[in-house]
Write a structure and sequence with these properties.
The protein has five helices and six strands. By secondary structure, it is of the alpha/beta class. The protein has a single domain, classed as Rossmann fold. The mean pLDDT is about 95.
Length: about 160
């Protein structure tokens, strides 16, 4: 079984979404034969796209939620996506942290890394905004010896 975790930007531009989705689809199609498990925190943006593509590929989705109040931190649209993906997940792990803060995101990243054979990073390669973000997860994966595959197609951009 191949277990692939995702990390990535929340703020992808609208034209970037189909570019990233297509790259994720190609990447996941190349990780067969055999069962596929996708590990995601189901955040808006890259995490959601990855989870949708894992399910579309017939994979098993494992949701790792950073805190008990994670869902409340989402706006209405992303909350509906979160609920839909949680309902489709084969496993949901909610970390026992009260608030979705940097420490909770770092703990979620550690759980993803503990379970992953590979990390897919939907990442523009720029430094991060703090602990628990995409750049931090890529660095943590390197320290843990978990390979990272960066997905950032030509023409991709982050929203301001």
């Amino acid at each position: 079984m191949t277990a692939i975790a995702v990390t990535g930007h929340l703020n992808l531009t609208e034209p970037t979404v189909p570019l990233v989705r297509a790259e994720l689809r190609r990447l996941l199609a190349g990780h067969g034969p055999g069962p596929l498990t996708g590990l995601s925190c189901l955040a808006p943006g890259a995490d959601t796209l990855f989870a949708e593509e894992v399910l579309a590929a017939g994979g098993r989705l494992v949701a790792v939620l950073p805190s008990t109040r994670y869902r409340q931190s989402f706006a209405a649209g992303p909350r509906a996506d979160l609920d839909r993906l949680l309902a489709a997940a084969a496993e949901v792990l909610v970390l026992p942290r009260p608030a979705p803060d940097d420490a909770a995101y770092q703990a979620a990243n550690a759980e993803l890394l503990r379970r992953a054979d590979l990390v897919v990073a939907v990442w523009d390669g720029r430094p991060g905004n703090g602990r628990g973000g995409t750049a931090d997860m890529v660095a943590a994966a390197g320290r843990a010896g978990v390979p990272v595959q960066v997905v950032w197609p030509a023409g991709a951009a982050r929203a301001a």
